Structures are given as C-alpha cells and as structure tokens.
Amino acid sequence: MNTARPFPRLASINRSQLLLHSVDVENLIEPDHSARGIWELVGRLDLSHYYSEIFAVEGHAGRDHTAPQLLISLWLYAYSRGVSSAREVARRCAYEPGFAWLCGLQPISHRTLAGFRSDHKEAVDDLFVQVVGMLSAEGLITMERFTLDGTKIKANASGNTLRRKEKIEAHLALAREQVLKMNEQTAQEEKLSARRAAAQRRAARQRVSRMEAALREVERLQEGKRHTGDRSTSRASTTDPEAHVMRNGEGGTVPSFNVQLITDTAHGLVVNVEATTDAIDYRQVDAALKRCEEQLGILPAELVADGDYTNHASVQATADAGVDFYGSWRDSWRPSERDAHGRCGNFISSAFPYDAARDVYSCPAGNLLTLLKIKEDENGVRTRVYRASKATCRRCSLRDQCGPKKQKPGWARSISRNEDPPASAAFKVKMETEAAKQIYRQRSQLAEFPHAWLKERCGLRQFRCRGRIKTSIEATWACLSYNLIRWFSIRRKFQAQVAAWA
Ligand code: SF4
C-alpha cells in the first residue's frame, strides 16, 4: 500500500491582475494616533505668517497652494518618526498610514517639502513661541529654572571639503570662468531644454557664491587668529562655509554646528534653540539670555549650565540680568608638585607665605615680594602682581631653583594673584552650599535628555540644510516635534492617572 503523503495544496499568487482597492482614509490610523494630535494642534496655531506669503487667492487663476497646516504637520510628524529627508517624507505619503492620513493620500512634491522646511525663519520661530505659550498656559513650562546646554551636530558637508585660502581662490577663479562660459553658450543651450539650461546656470552661480562665502570665512578666521597671535592656517568648507570644524561626541573632528538648547526644568521642554558656529560654549550664556528676552519676552528666575559655560563673563551677565546662575567653576589653577617652569617644593608660587597685614609674600630666602601693580581685564578680574627686588634676586644663591630655566639678566621673581569680581566671589560661595549643589546635580539629566532625543528619535545626527540660519530652522523643527511628542506623553500619563483615580 502506498502511504506517501500527497503534496500540500498551496494558494497561488497572481501578480498579473489589476486590483482596485477602496481605502477609508479617515480610518487609516487609530483615534489617538499622534498624527491626529499634531494636525489638531497645528490647526489651533496662528499661521498668518505663512498665509501672508501665498499669492494664490480665491477668485483668481492659478494653482492652489499646498496648505501650510499640512506641510507643518507633515514635518512635525516626520521628525517624531526620525525622518528628516524630504524625499523620504514624500515617499511615505503614499504608503505609511500616519503620513497618508495627513496628506489624504495626495502626492506631495519633495521640493515643496524641502523649500517649506528651510525657508520662513520668522514663521518657524513664531510657531515655536506659540507652542511654548500653549505649554506655558497648561502649566508645563514654568519659566522658573532653565538649563542651557549645547550639542554638536554634523553639517551637511564632509571634512574633505575644507580648503585653505589659496585653494579656494583657485576654485573660485574656475567657477567664475565656468559661469561666463555658460552665459556665452547660447548655441548649445538651444539643444538643452530651457529648464535644464536654467538649472545648470543656477548651479554654477550657487557654486560661485559658496566659494565667495568660503573665501570670506577663511579671511575672517585668519583675521581673528592674527589678533591672538595664532599662526596656524585657517580652512573653510566649500560646501557649507559657515560650518566650523568641531570635536563631536564620538571623538571625531568634522564640520559641524553647535546647537544651543534652553530647556525648562519643570517637564524638560525646550523653550529656545539656536545653531551657532562657536565650537566652545564659553561665550553662550549672555547670547542665550538675550534670545530668551527677545523671543519669549521673559528671563528665567534661575539658569543652570555646566563648567563649559561657567566663567566670570557668564556670572556677571546673569547677575546683571537678575538671573540666579548655577554652574560648575573650573579653576585653571590646580595644586601640583611642579609648576610650568619646572619649579617644585617651596619654590612654587602657592608655597610662598602671604602676610595679609603687610600685603607682601616671603620667598624661601626670606626676602619680600611687594605689590608692583594691579591689572584689570574686560571681565572685571583684578590681578595683583608682586615682585622681589631685582638686586636681591641677582645676588641670591637659590636663583637657579627659584627662576625659570632661561633667565634674562634683570630677572626678578614675581607672583600674580587673581581677585574675583564681587559677582564671581558670591557665586563661588553660593556653589559651596548643599542647596546649590543639589540644583546643579539635576542638570545633566534634564539638559542632556533633549539632545539624545533629537539625535536618536528625530534622526538629527547630521543636518540636511546648509548655512547657520537654515540649520537653526531645521533644529527648531526637530525641537518643535520633540515638545509636541513630550506634551502628548505627559497628557497621556495624566489621563491614565485620572482614570486610575476614578
Ligand atoms: S631668587 Fe629672589 S625670590 Fe627667589 S629665593 Fe632668591 S631672593 Fe627670593
């Protein structure tokens, strides 16, 4: 008897058929989907900044303009899904339920999306402030305590595009020559479509303007270096001249922008964002306070920032603005066994006993260093300089141990002591208290969470746009998306709590 099992009967796949599907667009996504929340919220915002730039009006000929509410909602939803490419958003509008629901399954051009994102700086800033106002009205932003922190985000330019001045000048000459040639090539132009020829001429002109901007930037950098006595050669990117080489979190040095975020500590929501070209955070506190005042019309009661921001200038700026500043002071002086000149033991400046009553220092040979002068820098830091007598040091047997290795004939030992301005002295006393330390300890978690979100969830590891203004706009879109998603999450938690209590 044949006991072999018959071959399984399988459903066939017919790929040669044409199907018509009916799609219920409204039910593509569930009622509490974040795309609906974004659409509804954007609908409550005042979009008059965008409307004022639309020339297609009722009763006149021309194509309808894509609704700003749709484009704003698409970008906010895209960043919340980690999508920052305009082409990818346009693709997803055809098949991904959230995008498809937003655009009603109508195709959207990636050029429309890209142009809308990077233009309208004022309108995007206005949207951001409106959302901050809404969050504030709901009590989620208290304006009591802000944190300030920066994160480096790669520019849309590779390290290979960095050029020295001579190279940029050579490339610029070539680019200008090419523009001239293209303007003369009318015969060849006839063979190309008018649109293609115009695009080629535009690309050539853009290349010239990028080279000119790179040349200006490299000259500006060199001018800055001349003032500081730095003899190193400056380079600028020919793709994004405003991007500067910065060390990023992964340890690499690539053209980047330093994005400064101001976060309200009540619920970790971002209240201000700006892309800067400064590789260091040293001078950012004053600029951040000005942005708060200009855009929000208010200054926080307290500001918390890390050691990169903590210096005399920042402390003075916050004191002048009436903001209570919390930071981590990094003293440049550290006790060590040897100083920069190789001196050790009793010959290190810090080992010289100071007599406050007579305002003098005593040296290891028992001689006195008396006050020579008092200097004051632009931050109000006073430096008191004490010096021993030249004649005494010349005759001293300890001169080799006390002086630098290379001594000039008229050398005499001197000691400098910095005196903090009153604001810095008060700041240091405050930061020794337990209450201040506790406030500072909360900083890293609150300030760095939005950075991680922007990079991991919004996909903002590298900018798509170029130039400081456009990258600022892109960072603002990502922060808007972050604030909205965080708002929805807080609201969901609150509703779950209410349901649990009921
Ligand atoms: S070199 Fe001058 S300062 Fe130094 S130990 Fe001698 S006398 Fe004192």
Mean pLDDT: 88
Inertia-based shape:
globular
Q: What's the CATH class label of the largest domain?
A: Alpha Beta
> Which fold name is given in CATH as the topology of the largest domain?
Nucleotidyltransferase, domain 5
Strand content: 5-15%
Sheet with the most strands? 6 strands, mixed
Helices and strands: which structural class?
Answer: alpha+beta
Please tell me how large the radius of gyration is: 31 Å
The total count of strands amounts to 13
Bound small molecules, deduplicated: iron/sulfur cluster
Can you give the helix content as a percent range?
40-55%
- By CATH's scheme, which homologous superfamily of the largest domain applies? Ribonuclease H-like superfamily/Ribonuclease H
